[in-house]
User: Fold these one by one.
Assistant:
Number 1:
Amino acid sequence: MEGDGLHVSRPPLFNGQNYELWKMRMIGFIQYNGMELINIIKNGIPTLIDKSGEFLPFESMTVEEKRVCQNNAKARHIIMCALSEEEMSKVLAMVSAKEMWDTLALTYEGSKEVKRNKLTMLKRQYEMFAIKDQASIQSMVSRLQVILNSLRSLGSTVSQYEINDKILRILPAKWRAQEPLKILRPCPWKNW
């Protein structure tokens, strides 16, 4: 994914590394190209595929079924354009975009049990998160953001209040105010 940049007409390239980052970028790209495509990827098109895994005859489809079939083709095309040759070989023969997406997710995220274990590990990392000695606030926030993004990619979120509270609790003593701020000060000319 390095060096491919972000381009509005080209999906992010996936070469087998950094799946979670690619997935988040890919969801944004697909949404940009049409929210109906995300629906196709999430829900699939079971009514348009026969028992052998092939599409029903195009001529027998209703107008709505043809539209769904076209959106599946768009979603498949976007996924294929986003994959390196090696990654594409894993999903090339699949008819539905959902099947392609789910295969990539299973390959790189693992089963539900693996996801649950990753989620547990990430939650523990979040709970145990602390600032490193001599680290800047920026590096601390960057490290925390990596954990939070990984949690989000697995479907878990942390509220902004909890994040702010976490940061305030882990700040080193040298960064904390030594005495409460006095916002209202006596007016110096009051006794004149």
Number 2:
Amino acid sequence: MIMDILNSIFNMVFNILFYPFHWLNPVWGLIFISVVVGIMMLFIFKHTSNQTGIKQLKNELKAHLLEFRLYKDDVALSLEAMKDLFLTNFGYIKFALKPMLILMVPTILILIQLATWYEFRPLQVGEKSILSIKVKNAGLLERVELQTPEGIQIETPPIRIIPLSEIDWRFKAVREGDWQLRVTIDGREYRKTVRVGNRFVKLAPYRLAGNSLSGLLYPGEKTLPGDGELSEIHIRYPHRETRVWGVPVHWLVIFLVVSIAAGFSMKGVFKVEI
């Protein structure tokens, strides 16, 4: 429940951030978010790190490098400079460790949110996919009932995989829209959204039984009730292809390159020692 509330807040924030980019190439939204995140991480690093100590260690590193070059013909002095260089580097890592650990938390949450927008795309009209449902007890498989809306057409009878406690259907998207699949077991209903069309929207391939980890990893829809009979509902969406100047590039690569570049380019403006 708490994770669903947190996800609702994060989802609302990212919906607002991405709203201006719904009618543009999705890569522009990714670049915008990456720049914002890069600058945000810069501020977090500044206020969680020992800036004075980092500046001092960077000056020491420069001095030891110069020392190493000046005494490269003297083996003893070169080895001493290398030792000092190693120890200073180790000191720098110690200073950077705390802010990097702190930065991991918001970075992971942001990446999970971005994955709901950029890892997959909606089905197109005419495309086929697989709906997989897992129950907590294989004995429930015979009691699973599926109702589909007018935009979704079931093409196969249910395939029950008893060792996996799983039941699958192949379906076809026949109309654009956000369609609700309704799964019923012994009168209790569960729903899963299927999105069809060319829109740039958030997607939730999985809806899992409620626990903190599943809610964290798949924030697109609320978790399934923990006391219910289902453990998982899965829609196999196609992977989204993000292109830069016509070249396919994974969204995570774009995010990392742009956010790091934004952070380093602005560190002088905000007087941050990295």
Number 3:
Amino acid sequence: MDASPNLAPVLDGIAHKVSEAEFKRTLGIPVGHDIDDRTLAHMDEARSTFSEVAKPWVHTQPHGISSIIGDKISLNSGIDLTCELLVRKLEAAGAHMIVVVAVSAGAEISEHCDLLWQTNRPDEAFILDSLATNVVEQLTLRTGMQLCDWGEPEGMAAVPHYSPGYKGWDILEHLAILPMLAAELPLPGPLEVLESGMLKPKKSQISVFGMTRHTERILRLPGLCPCLDCSLEKCAYRRAPRREKS
């Protein structure tokens, strides 16, 4: 088993891997509604601009789990995480380790969006900002896919991610997680936690994926199969078809 997952496929051409359906969702365009030519042109322009301007990055840090007591997850590194819902996921899956993942669309894209707003180009700014939101989602999803690839030789599978700021997990826990992310290797790009617990650059996310050898539980237990809600159509590690949403 390699020391870390292969992250190159995650970043390659990421702006063009955002599907039109996902792009429409973040733009607030209802399912089944056509996109006008002007908006389509701005969407194409946003993909090109992102590819030229943005410097997205991904960073992973595995940690063994030493114990889970109550709502607290104690890691071998000496760090504790406190989230009852994450505990439920990890215990249900029989996870023995976690991988902390940080992704970012990069500071450059937020700066470019700000410039568009300042130069009275609100449509372009809004559409580019929406694309950056999608990119962060895709970076996280595709990192999960690479974690499955990384763990497969050892009979492991990834448990769906959870993040500070989600229901039941204090966003201020970013303050404890960020230092351990860079404990062994420096982060590929700038990332800081504000006093509010929010991340800067704003198009960034920290997530925790559980890893389990009890792969049979992934399909059997509700909420443990990431494939059911995953939009990645060509994934070699898909364990179940995507769940249709009404």
Number 4:
Amino acid sequence: MSFNAKNEKMNFWEEFTDEHKAGIKRAIEVAEMNTSGEIRVHLENSCKTDLFDRAADIFAKLEMHKTKLRNGILFYVAVNDRKFAIIGDVGINQKVPTGFWDETMEAVLNYFRMNQIPEGLMEGIRMAGEQLKEQFPYEMGDVDELTNEISYGSREDEI
């Protein structure tokens, strides 16, 4: 899904602070505290192929399909192209209510349209975490199967 922002001249990378990065990582940690589910965020400049194909490729490269319960969720953003996708693995997709992904996308995009990409991601992560908690509650012995760090694609066209 594409999004247009109020200030088209904003340079995301210049304004993407360590505080934003820590906030996103903390949002993931909080969302995963009460679930066996896994959430990742991937940011890059552009998406040169089909948006959902690219997000699915990143999902696979991050090995998100290898979680025990197939309950990983990827938030993918191509910041310069203003494209955004959420990819859920088969386990979570089978359980979320109809319209959940659309509602989450719209909530995130509302922030993106105001050039608040980190805040939008944090809200989407919170919403995803609530569904993961409901559908895949934490059980004794659950381990964090994937890193909570943000992954990054190429920023070469920014240089």
